[in-house]
Design goal:
Blueprint lengths: L13 H12 L3 E6 L5 E7 L4 E6 L6 H16 L7 E2 L8 E3 L2 E7 L4 E2 L8 H18 L18 H8 L6 H19 L7 E4 L8 E5 L5 E6 L6 E4 H12 L11 H10 L4 H28 L4 H17 L4 H11 L32 E3 L19 H10 L4 E4 L20 E2 L2 E5 L5 E4 L4 E6 L2 E5 L4 E6 L2 E2 L6 E2 L4 E5 L6 E9 L14 E2 L4 H7 E2 L2 H4 L10 H11 L14 E5 L2 E4 L4 E4 L12 H11 L11 H11 L10 E5 L2 H16 L3 E5 L8 H5 L18 E4 L15 H17 L4 E7 L14 H11 L3 E5 L24 E4 L10 E5 L1 H5 L15 H16 L2 H20 L5 E7 L2 E9 L4 E2 L1 H13 L2 E2 L1 E3 L5 E4 L7 H17 L2
Parallel strand pairs: 12-13, 28-39, 30-31, 30-32, 32-33, 33-34
Antiparallel strand pairs: 1-2, 2-3, 3-6, 4-6, 5-6, 7-9, 8-11, 9-10, 13-15, 14-24, 15-23, 16-22, 17-18, 17-21, 18-19, 19-23, 20-22, 23-25, 26-27, 27-28, 29-35, 34-35, 36-37, 37-38, 37-41, 40-41
Helix pairs in contact: 3-6, 3-7, 4-8, 5-8, 6-7, 6-8, 8-9, 8-10, 10-12, 15-22, 16-22, 19-20, 23-25
Length: 983
């Protein structure tokens, strides 16, 4: 035990380490020092590159401790925990003696250090918890006399050691914080210490003592356990607490992320109630001891660069461990471990839909009582009204004006508190109920339940007999009230006023920690704090005569529900998807009120929730719903409006409306085959065109169908894709070579009597991530196909409709006019509309195959919506916005490429961009795993981006065209953060 003295490392340098290696192990090596607080560690590298690690133990450690470590290594190996073996010396002994020191040599654990890995993903945090569980399980039956030893890092004496070492902390405010936190943790720990199991533990299972290995997902995963220098008897739960503490500095402003580590430990080594309650006090004590020990180590060993470099990380650990109140963190642990909390019970809770009354609290109140709806799906907050700073006040005032009393419920996520363009979720979940009363005379306030009455400042408290306290803020206490009150007794008054009056009512457990009070009304917490605060508080509604409206994050249950009813082939996004229930412009909002910037929904070209589109659909549904076989004005109006968008001088004069892009491509193929009397369609490799039989037949992307190229029907010919970055020919001067290959393909088809009916191509390679075609390629390809008697189909489903910014259609980028154009996604801004635009000559050829009809394509509703979309695009000036914001966004992304080599190239034009990620810019090795992981991290930071391309290594960027400069800048900043910190 150091008793506050600290330990000075053995006086052995690199030259001495090389001598030890030669004399004790017969090795000629180069030694380089590794870090340690109390021992000396050296990396030994032989001339052939073989590596091992030499450890010179601090003299305070005896042979029994070393022998116990060797036994523990055997226990680990038997349990399947990866550990480096201790290598014998020339005499066969594991422990060698040199210069009065005990020396050992071990295998070098291949991998990468995790301590400086930056951000750790949830799966990695969980793996650390599983590793800590594997450690205690492996060591549980180990018995050795060397395990029972005194040492400063035994968490059973962490408080005493912290107090003894604290005088070395020269920063007075920090020292006071450390001692205060340690004392609070000591008190909490004392309540359960006697119930904590003791067993052999590693004692220092941290990110600094675990070697990482890259996984298939490109992340660094914990693999081999190192350094058993702190092995000994200790509280079993201390193994977890020490591990958890080392996770905190990886994202120190989000300490709740380490609940992943705790949950994984609990799954494999279940925590008792006492152990769960001990976890966070031990985390705080470990953090406090790290601070105190680090300062003391520098005081006695100023040359210890390792200790000096660790100071900042240890400070981050302490700051994270104490960021939220200790009782709250403990409650989070209990919740994650599934340990029940006290429940506030009422005899007869009201249900939603019952009549609303406040008579138990305000018996003399007249008029209606209305619960105002501020949640994510509230119709009162449509059309972006939730973003107004006075949104809550306006809704409340509207009801007060009619003489109603307004209740803003407890536990209902408030959309009005959502914040956009932020990395962190806003505080949206109220832990109190608000009651807003219209101006008027004084009102009596009565106790909804019996208990002990207290008043403090402007707050009246009723301490209920079962450990709960009802708090009422905004009430003037009744000075004549007895100390104990019964339900219905007068406890105060709501003062008379010419202005609206507000009561805030909270129901809290007596052990709930204090929390910063709101300037006005209820206290709100962020969604990640709800698991604890939903246990510390309860809905006062049943006591007040109100129904309950409490919400929780139901995304996991909704995901489970979907998985039960979906087929395996039905794709979804994200490992842990949020439940999205609202969109506005280019923002998505989940059920907890967390906002995300939507960078992928090109279907909602105008943006989500556009009021004019909703109004057009609503109006049409109220008047007529029929199909295109009937005569009505809107069908011709919409068709004419679409044709007016075609380039001047084209003979594209006929519109056929369908329901989707897949149907549009399917119909375009039928038109071409009918018009030419031929069957063969030339499609480009790595393309996606749809899911119908015909559109899937020309879909050649191996990402969507791994067997695509081998399973195309005989009427489909796959030509090379002219991708200047990934294709057969790369660089700027590739057009002639790609066109020469296409010409050869057409000649081969003609020799085989497979005359070309059509050439189908996206005008921009959308599936590849917005790759622009080589200059002149599309014009040359169209000329070749037409010379061979074929027709040219431009698939504009993804890239058309103003998204390019500099042109309305993608094909205009190449200066060509197709024979057939397919369109869909943005046509209805979320309503299913697709279309084919061609010449009357080609369209009429379809009559040889019978009549064409689509039940919903060209219906009254789709035409009304389609017209509204076209009008809104002009009114909102979205094509110009795509040009300007697209250029700004592309410039920001390309600037990132100068600092982050993972970005190989930024593709695209306007607001169809792709950030291609590569592991090496020369070989262009796709960074697909990195791309997927980066998307997961961006989601955590409030940005929705997904992958595309044949190799799934391109971040696709195709947001609603209303994207703002502020949001674009935020996306760039978040991608920069992820590339800098990790994923």
């Amino acid at each position: 035990m150091t008793d506050g003295a600290g330990l000075v490392r053995p006086d052995v340098d690199e030259s001495a380490a090389e001598i030890i290696a030669r004399e004790c192990y017969g090795l000629v090596v180069a030694a380089s020092e590794l870090g340690s607080n109390q021992d000396r560690n050296f990396l030994l590298t032989a001339s052939d590159g073989a590596r091992s690690v030499l450890r010179i133990d601090n003299p305070v450690f005896g042979d029994d401790a070393r022998d116990a470590q060797h036994a523990a290594l055997g226990a680990y190996r038997a349990a399947g925990v990866a550990v480096p073996a201790v290598l014998p010396g020339l005499d066969g002994a594991l422990t060698q003696r040199w210069g009065g020191f005990a020396v050992r040599r071990s295998e070098f654990a291949e991998g990468e250090p995790l301590v400086d890995a930056g951000y750790l993903a949830p799966v990695v945090l969980a793996e650390f918890g599983a590793l800590a569980a594997a450690s205690v399980n492996a060591l549980a039956e180990l018995r050795h006399p060397g395990l029972d030893r005194d040492q400063m890092w035994d968490m059973r004496v962490a408080y005493e050691q912290t107090v003894a070492l604290a005088p070395a902390i020269a920063d007075d405010p920090l020292r006071m914080r450390v001692l205060a936190a340690a004392e609070e943790a000591r008190v909490a720990l004392a309540e359960v210490a006697a119930e904590l199991p003791v067993q052999p533990i590693h004692g220092d299972l941290t990110d600094d003592n675990v070697m990482g290995r890259r996984g298939a997902d490109s992340r660094l995963h914990p693999h081999a356990v190192l350094d058993l220098g702190d092995l000994g008897l200790g509280w079993r739960v201390a193994e977890l607490a020490v591990c958890v503490s080392s996770m905190l500095h990886h994202e120190s402003d989000r300490p709740l992320r380490v609940l992943e580590t705790i949950a994984a430990f609990h799954a494999d080594a279940p925590l008792s109630d006492a152990e769960a309650r001990a976890v966070w006090p031990l985390v705080v004590l470990r953090a406090a001891l790290l601070i105190a020990s680090g300062w003391r180590q520098l005081e006695i060993d100023g040359a210890n660069d390792y200790a000096r470099e660790r100071i900042a990380g240890e400070q981050a650990i302490f700051d994270a461990a104490t960021l939220l109140p200790l009782p709250e963190m403990t409650e989070h642990v209990l919740a994650r471990a599934g340990i029940d909390a006290p429940v506030f019970a009422v005899d007869s809770p009201r249900a939603q839909g019952e009549s609303v009354s406040l008579s138990p609290l305000l018996p003399d109140l007249d008029g209606d009582v209305v619960a105002v709806d501020l949640d994510v799906e509230s119709a009162a907050l449509d059309e972006g009204r939730w973003l107004a700073s006075d949104a809550e006040a306006a809704l409340i005032a509207a009801h007060l004006d009619y003489g109603a009393t307004v209740v803003v419920p407890y536990g209902l996520f408030r959309l009005t508190r959502t914040r956009i363009d932020t990395a962190d979720a806003a505080a949206t979940w109220p832990i109190d109920t608000e009651i807003h009363v219209a101006p008027g005379s004084e009102l009596r306030v009565t106790a909804p339940a019996g208990g002990e009455l207290r008043s403090r400042g402007g707050t009246v408290q009723v301490h209920l007999p079962d450990g709960w306290t009802l708090e009422l803020d905004g009430v003037r206490a009744n000075r004549r009230s007895a100390p104990r009150v019964r339900a219905g007794d007068t406890i105060g008054f709501l003062p008379a006023s010419d202005e609206p009056r507000t009561l805030t009512i909270g129901l809290r457990r007596s052990d709930a920690p204090s929390i910063a009070q709101a300037e006005f009304g209820a206290v709100l917490v962020t969604p990640d704090r709800v698991p604890a605060w939903s246990r510390f508080t309860a809905d006062p509604a049943p006591l007040l005569g109100l129904p309950s409206f409490t919400q929780q994050d139901d995304a996991p249950e909704e995901l489970e529900r979907r998985n039960r009813i979906f087929a395996a082939a039905q794709e979804r996004y994200y490992e842990r998807p949020p439940q999205i229930q609202r969109g506005w412009r280019h923002h998505l909002v989940d059920t907890t009120g967390r906002a995300y910037i939507d960078m992928v929904n090109n279907v909602a070209g105008l943006g989500h929730g556009h009021p004019k589109i909703a109004a057009a659909a609503d109006r049409q549904l109220r008047t007529l719903a029929t199909n295109s076989r009937f005569l009505f004005r809107e069908l011709a109006e919409y068709s004419e409006a679409l044709l007016a968008l075609m380039p001047d001088g084209s003979d594209l004069d006929t519109v056929l409306l369908v329901n989707s892009g897949s149907e549009a491509v399917d119909l375009a193929i039928r038109l071409a085959q009918a018009a030419t009397g031929r069957r063969t369609v030339v499609a480009l490799r790595e393309a996606y065109h749809g899911w119908t039989m015909a559109s899937d037949a020309v879909t050649t992307s191996a990402y969507d169908n791994p067997f695509a190229l081998a399973t195309r029907p005989d009427w489909v010919h796959v030509a090379d894709v002219p991708n200047r970055f990934r294709g057969t020919y790369r660089g700027e001067d590739t057009t002639a070579r790609y066109l020469a290959d296409l010409a050869d393909d057409i000649e081969d088809l003609q020799r085989d009597d497979r005359e070309v009916a059509a050439f189908l191509c996206e005008s921009i390679l959308g599936n590849a991530g917005g790759v622009l075609l080589p200059e002149g390629y599309l014009a040359g390809a169209y000329a070749q196909v037409r010379a061979a008697g074929g027709l040219c189909i431009a698939d504009e489903v993804q890239v058309g409709f103003g998204r390019m910014g500099s042109s309305f259609w993608g094909f205009e980028q190449s200066g060509v006019i197709p024979d057939i154009v397919t369109i869909a996604k943005p046509m209805g801004n979320g309503f299913p509309i697709g279309g084919v635009i061609t010449s009357k000559r080609i369209a009429d050829a379809l009559a040889t195959q019978g009549q064409f009809f689509s039940s919903s394509g060209g219906s009254t509703l789709s035409c009304a919506v389609g017209l509204a979309v076209l009008d809104a695009m002009v009114e909102d000036d979205l094509q110009r916005n795509a040009l300007e914001i697209g250029a700004r966004l592309a410039a920001g992304l390309r600037d990132l490429a100068t600092r982050h080599p993972l970005i190989g190239v930024v593709h695209g034009e306007g607001l169809y961009l792709g950030v291609e990620l590569v592991r090496d810019r020369e070989s262009m090795e796709p960074a697909a795993a990195e791309a997927a992981a980066i998307c997961e991290r961006l989601r955590e930071l409030g940005v929705i981006v997904l992958t595309t391309s044949e190799r799934s290594n391109v971040l696709k960027i195709k947001p609603p065209l209303c994207l703002t400069a502020r949001s674009a800048d935020h996306v760039v900043a978040m991608l920069d953060r992820v590339l800098s910190e990790g994923w």
